[in-house]
Structures are given as structure tokens and as C-alpha cells.
Amino acid sequence: MNQLAYALDSQPGVQQQPVLLCQQQDLVPFCGVAARFAEHAIALFYLPGQEVELYGVSHIDPATGAPVIAHGLLGESKGEFYIAAPLHKQQYRLSDGQCLSDSTLKLQVFEVQLQHAQVWLLPPTE
């Protein structure tokens, strides 16, 4: 993915505006795609036809520190989607990043939005 935004690289402080990450055509349905914004490696998961169609979580596996989450296996249990990390198979809920087998592990969650065939990273709400 080459269509990434780097606005924060030259601006100090916290992200204040939505940032264009990529185009919808860069996404692969029911698979992960890695993107980078400033110092963040983001794994995007596109689930067309689902109630929530786009999720953004950290691409960095909290168990190993490796940038591999976008390459994990997508699964669903009890109506919730999760990603199984490719190295040690920990399962993380896409909705909140929580590891299902180890409460000490959690992926950072990014608020992303698909709008007019573009993927936007929204400013943090906290």
C-alpha cells in the first residue's frame, strides 16, 4: 500500500483531523492489510456485508513484538470477529483488541472509517 498519509510526521502533538490511509480497492475482503501512519503500524480488516465492515488494530503482536497481525487468520465466535496471531495463535477480538486467552495481552484499536471508497483513520476520542 503506497497511498498512506504522513501528516503527523511533520506536526507535533496529537492527531486532530481524519487522515486518509488508503483506498477501498487496497483492502482484501475478509483478510488483513497492513498500513503505516506516523509511528503506528495498523492492521486493517475489511468485512463487507457485516454490521461493522472495517476494523483497525495494531499490526504489532503484543506477545512477540513482531509486525504480523495483518497476516493472521480471521475467525468468528458468537457473532464476534477475532484475529488469530500467526506466530503463537493468540486470538484477539477486533472490536476491542482484547486477547481471548490471556487477559494481559491487548492490541491497540484504531478508529477507522470507510467513506466514499476511502479508508480514513479518525482522531483518537480519548
UniProtKB/TrEMBL annotation:
Residue span(s) of domain Rieske: 19-121
Q: Which Pfam families match?
A: Rieske_2
Gene3D superfamilies named in the record: Rieske [2Fe-2S] iron-sulphur domain
* Swiss-Prot/TrEMBL keywords: 2Fe-2S, Iron, Iron-sulfur, Metal-binding, Nitrate assimilation, Oxidoreductase
Task: List the protein's name.
Answer: Nitrite reductase small subunit NirD
Taxonomic source organism? Rheinheimera maricola
